[in-house]
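Hi there,

I know you've been waiting on this one. I reran it after we fixed the sequence typo, so this is the corrected version. Both the input and the resulting structure follow.
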Amino acid sequence: MSALIDGFLPVFLMIALGWGLKASGFLTGDAWKPVERLTYFVFYPAFLIPGIWQADFTGGAAGVVGLATLAGAMTMALAAFLIRPLLRLDGPAYTSVFQGVIRWNGFVFIPVAAALFGPEAVGLAAVALGSLIPSINVVCVLVLSKWGSGQGGGWRAVGRSLWINPIIWSCVIGTALNLTGVAMPAPLVQPASMLGGAAIVLGLIVAGAGLSFRDAAGRPFTVGAVTAIKLLVLPLVMVGFAHLLGADRTAMGIVLLAGAAPGAAASYVLARQMGGDAPLMASVVAFTTVGALFTMPLLLWLFGYL
């Protein structure tokens, strides 16, 4: 019970705070943009780079985490592609369903992983980030290029999305520093810790501010089905691959949390920019975020982590 409270309650209280600040009008829509940009481009890299730099990847768990999460996400992406002819959805709505079942929120995943498995888990969690972010961005942009309304981003959009992504650069830089074997200089440890704390808090508040439940009532079955698949099926698929790859207990827990994390607010931005069904995407993100409050502890309990 202590792990449940320590791992989840602060996370979802921060998300609720962000939603409350936005809903109350305390901060207007325009005011959130610089907060989100600062968090994404400054605070989060300052959190990830030291975590990866100081991580111990000698035990082989990193490879298992990367492969299991990638295999799980791509399996679900393939399944979503294959059932496309059976779905009674227009192209833009399909792109939001596709994004909804595979995209995930690192702002929720990282702090829960750190709270449950300790600071050393940040490195393994970053491996999941580095594995999933490029691959998921590529397939989602390609799907939107094909079925988005009036769009055709193609490989140019994919390349730009990956090139300017600060999370990818953070993973690359942190890994390069880790491979050098050089310890982090002592004067950087405390500033990195301070920036990392800001990254987690602001990232969760921004995630809460982006939630929207307005358009779910018109399509309850679609939103409910995508939410269930994202929060229950995807984590089980990822854990299945982790088991086949011989994951240890910590690696298995990281993979489980990666799959069980709610949908990413970035998927709404991509839907809006590339002709997806943005209202449907916003509803999926909102309901997976609320649903994860219940399904993440449930899955951790079923697998013996709580």
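Quick highlight: Residues 2-300 form a domain with the Na+/H+ antiporter like fold fold (CATH 1.20.1530.20).

Best,
R. S.
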